[in-house]
Amino acid sequence: MVDHRKLGRELELFHADPLAGAGLPIWLPAGAAARHAVEEYVRELERRAGYQHVYSPPLGKRELFELSGHLGYFADDMFPVMRLSADDEFVLRPALCPHHALVYRARGRSYRELPLRIAELGGMYRSERSGVLGGLSRVRAISLNDAHNFCTFEQVGQEVAEILDLIRAAHSALGVRPAGFRLSLRGPGEKYLGDDEEWQRAEGLLRSALSGVSYVEAEGEAAFYGPKIDIQIRDAAGRESTLSTIQLDFDKPERFDLSYMDSDGSRRRPVMVHRSLIGSMERLFAYLIEVHAGAFPAWYAPEQVVVLPVGPDQADAAAEFTRNCVVAGLRARSVSDGSVGARIREAIQRKVPYVAVLGAREAAEGRISLRLRDGQRLDPMAAADALRLITGVVASRSAILR
Ligand SMILES: [Zn+2]
Question: How many CB atoms lie under 10 A from the CB of residue 169?
């Protein structure tokens, strides 16, 4: 595998500028196009699975993060509090959960609404030391694919099983190959909230959700509020990190006094399940760039089709095919400067999955010659068939180009 920082520069996916600050990369147009495709996909996947999306600000009042426990247990990883006046202090959030707890309690809730699944692809901040930062894998500004599923205790097992299915679906579409599953447990020390009984109950639920899956146990890797299932990936240097996660939390519902009206009219506390299907966009792309060597599956390739007229006489036919690709929802561009050989090489270096070549004969017959990124050359085909082939591969999110 190649280091994502090198490929990210060569393919102009992102830019690390010292003036912007360490750990604060900028997504360039190509990287942003790929990320946008992935974000659209995951929102759609979640929407079909019954999630509701919200927007909440990356900045919040100090009191919110005191109530959530973050300022007490997680302050070392947060940026310092910003003070506007003595009673007006703000923090850059280190997690989305406090805001989602406020979404839950924005009005009264009934048992009929559970599981209530609140999702957001939102910004959060961690004050990582500058020495550990690099490329997209360790950053200070994080865009997390996050959700909080509020459910009854009895629903937790089914909820976790459904989340595991969604994680598998997302991994398969993106080409993620997990390095392993991990059950992250409490370690020694005082940095954990809640009583022993709650921890054991949560641990038991996660263990049963993992039955049939091979996993390792890791003491001291739990969140401060509960145990979690972590799905690990490995980078080009062999370092392991967590991509997807499912965490059980009995504590925040208590702190935020969350409740629902049960069928018998009594007030009960929901359980909060924190989950991320694909982690942060930054860590995900650091991994995807390396695992695919920059050659993403066609559905999230920054440029999907490059159209090359052999000479000026084919310019109109090339422009028409490019337009048809764009109208069909593809990211396509026509390039006419330089020799055909040089243009093909350049497109393949940029890992564009489809190169459409139009010579005099193809243009006269309304045909296209497709060259695939992996070197395959397809026989000339009708322009409409070429378009159908590419849109079909993209729509099915296949990793195979034909
Ligand atoms: Zn959370």
Answer: 14
* Domain chopping of the chain, boundaries: 4-291, 298-395
Amino acid at position 15, single letter? H
Question: Which tokens is 141 given?
Answer: 């500004």
Instruction: State the distance from the centre of ligand 1 to the C-alpha of 51, rounded, in angstroms.
Output: 15
Tell me the β-bridge partners of 325: none
| Fold (topology level) of 4-291 | BirA Bifunctional Protein; domain 2 (3.30.930)
Rounded CA gap, 190 and 199, in Å? 14
CA 242–ligand 1 middle distance (angstroms)? 15
Compute, in angstroms, the gap from residue 103 CA to the centroid of ligand 1: 13
- Of 106-110, 129-133, 289-293, 340-344, least confident by mean pLDDT is 129-133
Residue 31 CA to ligand 1 centre (angstroms): 26
CA of 274 to the centre of ligand 1 (A): 5
CATH number (3.40.50.2000, 3.40.50.800, 3.10.450.50, 3.50.50.60) of 298-395 reads 3.40.50.800
Q: What is the pLDDT of residues 36-81, one digit of tens each?
A: 999 999 999 999 999 999 999 999 999 999 999 999 988 999 999 9
